[in-house]
């Protein structure tokens, strides 16, 4: 049986319940051997991050502690950012594929909102040569009517596979989970914290403690 890994990337500024729920959902669905959480280094499509790279990595470790499956925080994008290099998903996937070999099942997890700009990702059409792409969407979400760039809608629709197919093949398939609805944004959380609100319904308790101890997102 091939090794199975799911990758969950993001800025995690800060990590919240939505991230954890997304990771847990696909870890169970795909029966992965490991969930690898990858904080961005220099995200070329996002503004300046508020928390430091170390703080974001620390918060990820706290958020995913004690899960019933293996979780690792992968710092390769932070390492590239420290060298002044931008964060491109294609580089991350190439490195992980080289590490795990050609037979491993690698699945990249993402929210449906990311599909709107997927054609702006660096070498986006090459990404399917390294991983599967699993998308979490609200009930009733339809790629044909979601206003996606036509090339993205075609690429994802033509590659749709089952969880079993994804578990047992290395890359190249897509999956749309239409029973996953978590509406939380890091921007919303930072604004709440800046107003002095606890936001404990949005953030794992250990992460909230860390934020308070380090006086993050206060201004």
TrEMBL record:
Segments forming domain Cytidyltransferase-like: 7-191
Upper taxonomic lineage: Bacteria, Pseudomonadati, Pseudomonadota, Betaproteobacteria, Burkholderiales
Known catalytic reactions: nicotinate beta-D-ribonucleotide + ATP + H(+) = deamido-NAD(+) + diphosphate
SUPFAM superfamilies: Nucleotidylyl transferase
Keyword Chaperone found: no
Family annotation (InterPro entries): Cyt_trans-like, NadD/NMNAT, Rossmann-like_a/b/a_fold
Similarity field: Belongs to the NadD family.
PANTHER family referenced in this protein's UniProt entry, alphabetically: NICOTINATE-NUCLEOTIDE ADENYLYLTRANSFERASE-RELATED, PHOSPHOPANTETHEINE ADENYLYLTRANSFERASE
A GO MF term: nicotinate-nucleotide adenylyltransferase activity
Pathway(s) the chain acts in: Cofactor biosynthesis; NAD(+) biosynthesis; deamido-NAD(+) from nicotinate D-ribonucleotide: step 1/1
Keywords: ATP-binding, NAD, Nucleotide-binding, Nucleotidyltransferase, Pyridine nucleotide biosynthesis, Transferase
The protein, known as: Probable nicotinate-nucleotide adenylyltransferase
E.C. number(s) listed in UniProt: 2.7.7.18
Pfam families, sorted: CTP_transf_like
CDD domains, per the entry: NMNAT
Organism this protein belongs to: Duganella levis
Keyword Amino-acid biosynthesis: no
Its job: Catalyzes the reversible adenylation of nicotinate mononucleotide (NaMN) to nicotinic acid adenine dinucleotide (NaAD).
């Amino acid at each position: 049986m091939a090794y199975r890994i799911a990758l969950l990337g993001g800025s995690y500024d800060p990590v919240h319940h939505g991230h954890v729920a997304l990771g847990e959902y696909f870890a169970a669905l795909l029966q992965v051997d490991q969930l690898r959480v990858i904080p961005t280094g220099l995200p070329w499509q996002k503004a300046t991050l508020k928390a430091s790279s170390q703080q974001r990595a620390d918060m990820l470790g706290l958020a995913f502690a004690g899960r019933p499956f293996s979780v690792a925080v992968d710092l390769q994008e932070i390492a590239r950012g420290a060298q002044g290099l931008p964060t491109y998903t294609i580089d991350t996937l190439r490195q992980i594929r080289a590490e795990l070999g050609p037979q491993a099942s690698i699945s990249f997890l993402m929210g449906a909102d990311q599909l709107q700009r997927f054609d702006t990702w660096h070498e986006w059409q090459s990404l399917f040569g390294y991983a599967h792409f699993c998308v979490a969407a609200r009930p009733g979400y339809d790629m044909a009517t979601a206003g996606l760039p036509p090339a993205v809608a075609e690429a994802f629709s033509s590659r749709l596979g089952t969880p079993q197919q994804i578990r047992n093949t290395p890359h190249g398939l897509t999956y749309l989970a239409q029973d996953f609805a978590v509406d939380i944004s890091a921007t919303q959380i930072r604004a709440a914290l800046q107003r002095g609100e606890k936001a404990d319904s949005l953030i794992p308790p250990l992460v909230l403690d860390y934020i308070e101890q380090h006086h993050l997102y206060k201004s």
